[in-house]
Amino acid sequence: MRTLILASVATLIAGCATQDCACSRTHVDPHLSLQLPPEFSCKIENKDHVCVTASRDRYVIYAMKMKGSEDTLDLYKARFNQAKIVEINGVKWVDATKIPGEMPGYSTRYLATVDEDIAVLVTFTAKNEQFAKFNEDMKPVIGGLILRR
Fold it and tell me: For 48-117, where are the E strands, in sequence order?
């Protein structure tokens, strides 16, 4: 799933994404609800929800899949250096940040969780020089993540 997210980010950064649509502040999916600032526009790309600012310097991407045997919090945590387990609205998430990230010039914060039958990954990506402020700005978004069961 992480590879799919990175491919989506790479496509957007390269400027290949088209057909943005305005999105409401609150995004509700059958499995996840989050509230983004109004400067983000969103679309579904390769089954991922891709939200980006008009300047294409900040991204929030969330993806879900059916839970497999490789989808556990312990395995997710082991994939990242300095990952930690955090609780957001009663759900345990793996929280990890890569500075710099896999994409040149960008850093990414990853939040991943599993439920009975789904695995969820939410990424917050911004240019390196904007990442600290972006990470701070996203605290209310992260605090408002709701895994719908």
Answer: 48-53, 58-66, 84-88, 91-98, 106-114
Spatial contact of 36 and 141, defined as CB atoms under 8 Å apart: yes
* Residues 6 or more apart in contact with residue 135 via CB below 8 angstroms: 97, 109, 124, 126
φ, ψ of residue 60 in degrees (nearest 5):
-130, 125
Look-up: residue for tokens 């978004």? 141
- Site of tokens 């590879």: 3
Per-residue pLDDT tens over the stretch 2-31: 444 444 444 333 333 333 333 335 656 677
Q: Which residues pair with 28 in a beta bridge?
A: 33
CATH code given to domain 2-147 = 3.40.1000.10
Q: Give the predicted TM-score (pTM) of the model.
A: 0.80
Residues 49-88 have pLDDT tens digits of: 899 999 999 999 999 999 999 999 999 999 988 899 999 9
